[in-house]
TrEMBL record:
Belongs to the IFI6/IFI27 family. One of its GO terms (cellular component) is mitochondrial membrane. This is Interferon alpha inducible protein 45. The lineage of its organism: Eukaryota, Metazoa, Chordata, Craniata, Vertebrata. It is found in: Membrane. Residues 1-25 form the signal peptide. Its main location: membrane.
Amino acid sequence: MSCLPAVGAVVAAPALLGAAGFTSAGIAAGSCAAGMMSSAAASNGGGVAAGSVVAVLQSAGAAGLSATAGAAVGWLVSFIS
């Protein structure tokens, strides 16, 4: 079993987060991230729950990623991209 896909996910995660709209400046207007945030807020009474997928992805997009977080976000982003 090759580890290449996992390594690729870690390397690609920051770019995928940015492309989805999870940026260091916040969620980009009109992006996939904005749609996810809108849906999460609508289903949660107007706010985005701490620890939710949207919150975790935005935190990763804003703060950068450790190797472990990069692997986890890379795996998660592969399902929403």
